[in-house]
């Protein structure tokens, strides 16, 4: 990796700024001064220091966010605020992207990373990773709906969903439910309830696999994924 790119990615400034630091003699590789930004290093093998401070290289970033309503699950958008806009500069430098997506008006658990293998392991249809949602439904959700969801419902485009686990928390004119699915079709949860004559009025993702949304994460905030949380996703590296 180019030295200027490494230092910029690790938060030491823009490429222009780190080049000034290098020319001042503040950057060393394995004890030797390096003054050219184009100089290549192996960040996992070489010892890089900036004014005596060892640069701790990190290749990937894994973030757990409580996505707020009204924010787009995208890396950029000309009109709307994106989840990337919510990141601190030092985290945005890693150029993470959302793992899957949540609709603009859906909130809750969202993972972000720059590790494509990690994302694929979670989002590939072949993996059958479960996603659990809590929702408010206009209309009374019944035992019949539970059975229909268990068998798979036909969406408006003719697609028959895979079996889903529907749990009724409260029933009435306005019902509260939890739904666990293993796929992620466009607006799937909303369309599933539309298929049985009901409407989703509030939707929040609360779990991916066995990883639950941290109750201490306020809406719009995030933190790095912990080792024990990684293990809950049952991923292999």
Automatic annotation (TrEMBL):
Keyword tags: Isomerase, RNA-binding
SUPFAM superfamilies associated with the record: Alpha-L RNA-binding motif (SSF55174), Pseudouridine synthase (SSF55120)
SMART domains listed in its UniProt record: S4
Enzymatic class: isomerase
Any Pfam family hit: S4
Highest rank taxon of the organism: Bacteria
Entry EC no(s): 5.4.99.-
RNA-binding S4 domain ranges (all copies): 1-59
Cellular component per GO, a single term: cytosol
Family designation: Belongs to the pseudouridine synthase RsuA family.
Name under which the protein is recorded: Pseudouridine synthase
Organism whose genome encodes this protein: Halalkalibacter suaedae
Lineage: Bacteria, Bacillati, Bacillota, Bacilli, Bacillales
């Amino acid at each position: 990796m180019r030295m200027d790119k490494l230092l910029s990615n690790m938060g030491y400034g823009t490429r222009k700024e780190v080049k000034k630091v290098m020319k001042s003699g503040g950057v060393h590789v394995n004890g030797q001064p390096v003054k050219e930004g184009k100089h290549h290093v192996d960040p996992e093998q070489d010892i890089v220091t900036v004014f005596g401070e060892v640069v701790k290289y990190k290749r990937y970033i894994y973030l757990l966010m409580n996505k707020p309503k009204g924010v787009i699950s995208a890396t950029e958008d000309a009109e709307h605020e994106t989840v990337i806009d919510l990141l601190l500069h030092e985290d945005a430098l890693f150029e993470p992207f959302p793992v899957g997506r949540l609709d603009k008006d859906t909130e809750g658990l969202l993972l972000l990373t720059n590790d494509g293998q990690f994302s694929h392991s979670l989002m590939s249809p072949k993996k059958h990773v479960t996603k659990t949602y809590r929702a408010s439904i206009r209309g009374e959700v019944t035992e019949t709906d539970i059975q229909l969801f268990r068998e798979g419902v036909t969406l408006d485009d003719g697609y028959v969903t895979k079996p889903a686990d529907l749990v009724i928390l409260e029933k009435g004119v306005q019902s509260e439910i939890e739904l666990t699915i293993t796929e992620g079709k466009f607006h799937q949860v909303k369309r599933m309830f539309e298929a049985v004559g009901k409407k989703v009025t509030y939707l929040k993702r609360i779990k991916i696999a066995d990883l639950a949304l941290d109750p201490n994460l306020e809406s719009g905030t995030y933190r790095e994924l912990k080792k024990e949380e990684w293990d809950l996703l049952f991923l292999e590296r």
